Amino acid sequence: MGDGAVYRKECSWIESVNGNIVTTTEWSNTPDAVSVDPAVLAQQAVDSMLLAGPSIISPRAAGTYTVGVPLWLWVSQSPTTWGPNTASASAGGITVTATAKVSSVAWNMGDDSTVTCSGPGTPYNAARGMTPSPDCGHLYRSTSASPPGGKYQGTATTTWNVDWAVSGGGQTGQLTEVRQSPFTVSVGEVQVVGE
C-alpha cells in the first residue's frame, strides 16, 4: 500500500447560551471538496485572465472631429479586451473553468451623453462619407473649447459576462466584471471662409 494523506478539518463557533468557544476536529483520508466555494475559484480564474479596459481605435487622441458630423466609435478585439477568454482554477479536488466575454460597451462622451453599444463598433473608412455608424456612433453638438485642455474627457466601459462551471459537471454560475478606458476628443467647427 502506497503513501497516503490525512486531512484535518477544524470548525469553531461561540455558543449562544454561555459564550463558550467550541471547536470540533474531523479527520479524513479524502479532501473535503465541499469546503471549497466554486464561485471563489471562478473569481480566481477570472483574475488570472488579466482582463483590461477596451482598446479604443476611435476616437483617436490625435484626431480632430467636427460639430454635427457623425463620429464612429469602435474598439479592437483581443482575448483580454473583448474576449472570449477562458481560464481555470483548482483547489480541494475540484476545478472550475470560467469563460468571459464583453456584452456591451458604454461610451461616456464627455458632453453629458452616453452611448451604449452591444458590439465593438464598425470601423470607419472614407467611402462611408458623412453617414452615421450603423451600430455605434455619436454626434457632438458643441465644440470642446470649454472643457479643460480644449478636449472632451470620456470613458469607455466594458461589461464582461462570465460563465463558469465545475469541471466534470455540477455547479455552474455567472459573474459580471467591469473594465474602463479613458479617451479624449477634440471637437471643432467647420470654418466658412467668405470671398
CATH architecture: Sandwich
Mean of all residue-level pLDDT scores: 88
Structural class: mainly beta
* Ends apart, CA distance between termini: 101 Å
Give the SSE string. EEHEEEEEEEEEE
CATH superfamily: Immunoglobulins
Gyration radius, in Å: 26 Å
Helix proportion: under 10%
With helices defined by DSSP (H or I, 4 residues minimum), what is the helix count? 1
User: Tally of extended strands?
Assistant: 12
Low-confidence stretches: none
* Shape, per Cα inertia axes: elongated
CATH topology: Immunoglobulin-like
Major sheet: 6 strands, mixed
CATH class: Mainly Beta
What fraction of residues sit in β-strands?
A: over 45%
- Number of individual domains: 1
Question: Which key terms come to mind for this protein?
Answer:
195 residues, mainly beta, Immunoglobulin-like, 6-stranded mixed sheet, two-stranded antiparallel ribbon, 1 helix, 12 strands, 45% strand
Polypeptide structure, described:
It is a single chain. The protein has a single domain (36-188), classed as Immunoglobulins (Immunoglobulin-like, Sandwich), CATH 2.60.40.10. Helix content is 6%, strand content 45%. It has one helix and twelve strands, in the order E-E-H-E-E-E-E-E-E-E-E-E-E. It has one helix spanning 38-49, and strands spanning 7-14, 21-28, 55-58, 64-66, 71-72, 74-76, 85-91, 94-108, 114-117, 137-138, 152-166, 172-188. The strands form four sheets. Strands 4, 7, 8, 9, 11 and 12 form a six-stranded mixed beta sheet that branches. The termini are far apart. The mean pLDDT is 88.
